[in-house]
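One-letter codes give the sequence; the integers encode the fold. A sample entry reads:
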Amino acid sequence: MPAELRCVVPELIIPASPVLSDWLVMQTLVGQEERVVERLRRQFLPEDEVAHPRRRLQLRQQGVYVDTMKTLFPGYLFFRGHCVDAAAFRERILSLTRSRCELPGMVRILGQGQRPMPIYEHEAQLIWSMMNEAEVIDYSQVCFVGATVKIVRGPLLGHEGIIRRVNRRKGRVTVEMQLFGAVNCTDLGVEYLEVTAGGCPR
């Protein structure tokens, strides 16, 4: 079987009238995400109102595959923008913007012009549904039936429609995820299960 297979999957469904979520996006220098998250949680925001989604991948180092953690969207993290009223929301944004010197690695808060813009609810739900309590998208377990890949268990179960390519040799799949309606391709780790006479394990 070839190392790389392309999956025939349904198109990603986008709501006709997408609803905005409570979550905003902060851009950081790539590689500085964890540093910014730690400072945000320590000085500015409650721990559960900051999120740094990551993914487990196997990377080859000196001929050996090892587990690594990678930021889901390099250079971006998430924080809640909801507050008791509009004034409190504006104050939170202004406080973070003014405190850039105390947040090394922070670049800006994403939005339209000068207006911070939350991500869509369906985008947030997809990310949060796949993360575990440690904010990590763990490996999904998959098996092949002929040339068809089947998700058996794990974070991708029920989300087969976002898979765009499978790389069996590297143990990963390429998926399409959205931010602000724009498509981002990223790799997620998978584990392969052997197919038995009865088919894929349950």
About this structure: The two ends are 23 Å apart (CA to CA). The chain has two domains: 1-19+137-202, 22-118. Residues 1-12 have pLDDT under 50 and may be disordered. The first strand starts at residue 4 and ends at 5.
